[in-house]
Amino acid sequence: MTTVSIASNARPPNPDTCRVVAAHPGSVDRVLASFGPAVQRAATTAKFRGKEKESFALTHATDDGLCHVVLLGVGDQGTAAERLRVLGDRAGKAATQRGCKRLELDASHVVEAPADPSLGARLVEGLCLSTYGYRTFLSGERAAAPSLDAVEVVGPAGLAEGFDRGRIIAAGIARARDLGNGPAEVVTPTFLADTAQDLARRFADRGVSVEIFDRDACQAMGMGLFLAVAKGSDIPPRFIHLSYRPAGAKTRVVLVGKGVTFDSGGYSLKPTDAMLDMKMDMCGAAAVLGAFEAIVNLGLAVDVHALVAATENMIGGHAYRLGDVYRGLDGTTVEINNTDAEGRLTLADAIAYGRRLEPDYMLDLATLTGACMVALGPRIAGLMSPHDALADTVVSAAERAAERVHRLPLPKDLEDQLESKIADCKNTGERWGGALTAGLFLARFAGDVCWAHLDIAGPAMASKAWGPHREGATGFGVATIAELVAGLAGGA
Ligand code: BES
Ligand code: MN
Ligand code: ZN
C-alpha cells in the first residue's frame, strides 16, 4: 500500500527514490531555474516547456547508484482537478517504471495556494491508481503489480487535507474496475451479491447491513420487469440492498446501479462487435458498490442505500420475447418492443423499490444507451433529472471528482414514443434521442422522488488507455458519488 505524506522540501538524491517535478507553461522557467545550468541547458535543448504530455527525464550517477529526476509537463488544458489526477498517475508510473519504490513529487509549481482538498484527493487518486491493472488471469511476472511504497508530495497547504479521501476513493475505484473488468463467467449476479455481503460483514460495526433477494423472493415482491430480463439466464439473478445507517445521519440517499452482468441483447440480439464489451454492462453497479465502500471508509454521516438488480440478459427457451407484457413492482405494465433495452427494466424495479425507502435523493448510474455515446462521445456521461437543484449538485460533485458529466433534457413531448396500445407503456422509443427516452422511461418509476439519472455508457469503459485510465473499466462514477455524498455530509 502506498503511503502519501507532505514533504517540507527536497531531500538529497537517493537511488531508491524518483524525484518528479511538475511544471506548466507558466511556471516552467521557475522550475528550470531551480536546477543547475547543465540541467537547464539539457531541458531547454529538449524543448521542455511544461506542456501537456511533455516529459524530460534525467538519470545521474551518485556514489550510491543511479538517481532519477523527471520533469513532467501538465499543460493548462482542462480543470485543475483533471490535471492533478493525470499528474498523479504519470508521476507514479515515472517512479515504478524506473524501478523506484519511493517517489518525491514536487507539485508546488502547478497548484496554487490555498489548494482545495478535492485537488489533493485527485492527485493521490492518480498516484494510487498508477499501479492499477486487472491481473487476476495473468501469469508469472505479468501477475505482479509494481509497488510504490511511499510518496512525499511538496505542495501548498490544503493539498494534504485531501490525501486520505483520495486514497479511500482510489480503493473504491479499483474495486469498481475489478468488477467491470472481470469476465461475466466470474462476475455473476451471485458474485456481486457476495461482494455486497463481504462489505456488510466487514463493516457490520459501522452500521452496514445487506439484504439479498433471490428469484423467488423478487417474484414474491412483484418485480416482474427485473425478472423478465432474468428469465433467459441459467445463472440466477440477485436483488441487492446494501444499507449504511451511521448514527447522526440527517439525509438519506438511494444509489441504484445497473447490474447486467452480460448483455447479449436477448432476442433483439447484438452483433458480435457490439456484444464484445458487454461483460461491463454492470459498471453502474460496480460504481455504486465501489462508492459505497468509500463512503463507509470515509465515515460520512449520511444514510446510504445501494440497490442493484443483478442479472444477465440472455437468449434461450426461457428468455423474454418481443411483444410480451410484464408488470413491475409499482404495478406499471410494460410491453417489450426491444429485449436489448433491458437495463431500464431492471432499473425500473430497483427505482420503485428505492422509492419505498423515502429518500431525500436518489441517483442511478447505468451503462444504458449507445445513443448517449452518440450525443456526448465516449468520455462524458449524460445527466438527466427533472430537479434542477439536484442536477447542479451532481454537476459540481463531478467537477470536484474530475469526472465529466453533461446535463441532457427530459423532453415531456417525447413521452408519447413510449405509448403502448396494450400496456401502460413500451420499453423503447424511436431511434433519435434514445438516451432521453430511456431517461423518460425511468422518470415514470421515480415518481416525485428527487431523482437523477447518469448514463455512463461512454465513460464507464475505455477502448484504449487515455488520461488516467487503462484500457477497460474506468471506475467512472465512484469519485462523483463519493464527492456528492461528502458534500451532503457537509464535508466537501
Ligand atoms: N448496455 C447497452 C448500452 C450500451 C451500449 C452500453 C454500448 C455501453 C456501450 C443497453 O442495454 C442497450 O443495449 N441499449 C440499446 C437501447 C436500444 C435498444 C433502445 C442501445 O443503446 O442500442
Ligand atoms: Mn441492452
Ligand atoms: Zn445493457
Describe the structure.
The chain folds into 2 domains: 3-154, 3-Layer(aba) Sandwich (Leucine Aminopeptidase, subunit E, domain 1), CATH 3.40.220; 168-488, Aminopeptidase (3-Layer(aba) Sandwich). It has helices spanning 28-33, 37-45, 80-97, 117-129, 163-181, 189-202, 215-221, 224-230, 272-275, 283-298, 343-355, 370-376, 388-401, 434-446, 478-488, and strands at residues 3-6, 17-23, 55-62, 65-73, 102-106, 150-154, 208-213, 238-244, 252-263, 303-313, 325-327, 333-335, 361-366, 381-384, 405-407, 425-426, 451-455, 461-462, 472-473. An 8-stranded mixed β-sheet has the order 7-8-10-9-13-17-14-15, with helices on both faces. It contains 15 helices and 19 strands. With 492 residues, the protein is an alpha/beta fold. The longest helix has 19 residues, at 163-181. The chain is elongated. The chain is 35% helix and 21% strand.
Shape: elongated
Question: What would the average pLDDT be, to the nearest integer?
Answer: 96
Query: Main sheet, how many strands, which sense, barrel?
Result: 8 strands, mixed
Rg of Cα set: 24 Å
Q: Give the total of domains.
A: 2
Structural class: alpha/beta
Quaternary form = single chain
What's the β-strand tally?
A: 19
CATH architecture of the largest domain: 3-Layer(aba) Sandwich
The share of residues in extended strands comes to: 15-25%
Query: What is the third-level CATH name, the topology of the largest domain?
Result: Aminopeptidase
